[in-house]
Amino acid sequence: MLSLKKEIRSFICAFRGVFYAFKNETHIKIHTFVALIVCILGFLLKITANEWLVCLFCIAMVFSAEMINTAIEKIMDLISPEHNFRVGIIKDIAAGAVLVCVIFAVAIGMIIFIPKILALF
Questions:
Q1: CB crowding 47-69: b at 16 or more within 10 Å, else e
Q2: Looking at 25, 51, 66, 82, which residue is catalytic?
Q3: Distance in angstroms (rounded) separating the CA atoms of residues 107 and 110
Q4: Which pTM was predicted?
Q5: Residue 120: helix, strand or coil by DSSP?
Q6: What would the DSSP string read from start to end of 17-69?
Q7: Is 7 a catalytic residue?
């Protein structure tokens, strides 16, 4: 059985990872800025509860993918500090996973927000 102390320590480590990423990773800062814009637009355009769920899921998906990408990059840099073609491919694939998440999040955002913006005119 897991002790409460060990569980609390696990949460502290997880939050430390989140704070590290938000403090040190440029792309996380960009995603945060875009997420804030999405939330502001969501309030201004009065999106539905289901649209909020989809937007929040997309935001979480992009942040999670970016943090996993960052972890993969850090591991690869530790394993092979010098330039290595295979390590580069691994990093590119991880970055590509983030790109796929972002592309789908943007598409979903367009589906939700464009009709609401057009309705204003």
A1: beeebeebbeebbebbbebbbeb
A2: 66
A3: 5
A4: 0.89
A5: coil
A6: HHHHHHHH-HHHHHHHHHHHHHHHHHHHTT--HHHHHHHHHHHHHHHHHHHHH
A7: no
Give the CB-side neighbour count of residue 51, counting CA atoms within 13 A: 18
Name residue 98's amino acid.
Answer: V
To 5 degrees, how large is the angle CA 34–CA 115–CA 54?
50
Digits of tens for pLDDT over the chain (121 positions)? Answer: 568 888 899 999 999 999 999 999 999 999 999 999 999 999 999 999 999 999 999 999 999 999 999 999 999 999 998 989 999 999 999 999 999 999 999 999 999 999 999 999 9
The Cα–Cα gap between 23 and 17 comes to 10
